Amino acid sequence: MDKIRNTPPAGKALLAAAMLLPGVAAHAETPPERAAVSVKYLYYKEDQPGLDRIKVHSPAVSVLAPIAGEWSIAGSVTMDDVSGASPRYHTAISGASRMDDLRKAGDVSVTRYFPRGTVSVGAAFSTEHDYRSRALSLQGTYASEDKNTTWALGIGGSDDSINPVNNIVTDEGRQTVNVLAGVTQVLTPLDVAQLTFTHSRGHGYYSDPYKLVDNRPRERNQSTALMQWNHRFVDYGGTSRLSYRYYRDNFGVSAHTLGAEYVQSLANGWTVTPSVRLYSQRAADFYFDPVYDARLGAPFPPGYVFGGSAFSSADQRLSGFGAVTVGFKVARQIDRDWSVDLKLERYEQRGSWRVFGSGSPGLDPMRAVSVQLGVTRLW
Amino acid sequence: MSRRKPGRAMAWLVFSATAATLSGCALPPVQAWEKGELARPDMLMQADPLETKFNEHIYASKEAASGGSGVGGGGCGCN
């Protein structure tokens, strides 16, 4: 295989798979009673008509341990073995870049528990041949006296450096600061809801060095509002988990994400969880459809000027589209200490599936399947 | 490139979400001894943190939107 060491979408994402610090969990205001070690293995594969794209094999380990009754430590490490092909513009098969790479990432966080709140600090690090990321974060939660309402505040920052192997740029980087504010509310003995806002401001190199005619702004500001609602169906032994996220950024992208899953308990420690996720996004302002300059041809947009400063991108991820994921998870609590789980998911995105407007024309659909296998041991 | 201001949809979203959340205050407060079901692992907002991490970063590699549930996540070249 021609080993042009590209940075494909899936791999880059998985590179950072261990990097998100634990989020603001509802009612997690006390240290864990027992230590937990989880091992997960992910297999992921994506394709489009006529082209197998990225494949990822990714083992991960996470540890969560109570310390001295008032502290806990959490950490995880992930390795991603990524290989496959990625279009250099739109969904063009011809000239797709190929790659084969191994990436490593890890994170750790320490939490101090108080009678009505928590403080957590965390750090994350990842490295690969052309990209390195370091991140720090500080989060706090504070609960009302009856502990039915919990407020959360957080701040984080990251410093990334980028050295693409094609030397289209050297020693580039990006710095990001992000903040979080949230509230978790116990509504009834069977309902809990959470509302979280985040805002991120970043500057630096945001173009994709391995895509053609890709020139993006050097500033990216992103905002999200996330609502989650969990409800327990006691009579049926089930739990519904609903979420909605609104996203927008200064690239002109806005997106809606709706998630729903239902956890059904069965006999002998088995649970099954069907899930569905619906997603829709508006294209970035500078994304151009696959209509090319009459003189220059593909991949140049009409009127393209070499060396010009106009923003442009033919990245499918910045187009307008809708996407659907369906998933099914089976888990079994074997005994007091051991549990295992298996999750299968199928994903597809199409321009014509965008809601609240028409999607970007002329792109092939993108499909993916993933399998996650996990084992957890408690001490 | 145009810098967009938060639109009407966002304002409505924030308003309705806040109202929905605060409406919890109007419900009778849940007592400590009534929270047995809420303590179940599947009632946690992040029931499976490793699965959440995998999913968030897979989606961040395929879609323009990302984030929403945490801070301090490292960057990646996927977007």
- The low-confidence runs of chain A, each spanning 5 or more residues with pLDDT under 50, are 1-27
Helix content of chain A: under 10%
CATH-derived topology of the domain at 106-367 in chain A? Maltoporin, Chain A
What is the quaternary state of this protein?
heterodimer
CATH architecture assignment name of the domain at 106-367 in chain A: Beta Barrel
Element string of chain B (H = helix, E = strand): HH
Structural shape of chain A:
globular
Number of strands of chain B: 0
The named CATH superfamily of the domain at 106-367 in chain A: TonB-dependent receptor, beta-barrel domain
N- and C-termini, Cα separation of chain B:
18 Å
- Overall SS class of chain A: mainly beta
Q: What is the typical, i.e. mean, pLDDT of chain B?
A: 76
Task: Describe the global form of chain B.
Answer: flat
Order of neighbouring strands in the sheet with most strands of chain A: 1-2-3-4-5-6-7-8-9-10-11-12-13-14-15-16
Q: Structural class of the secondary elements of chain B? A: mainly alpha
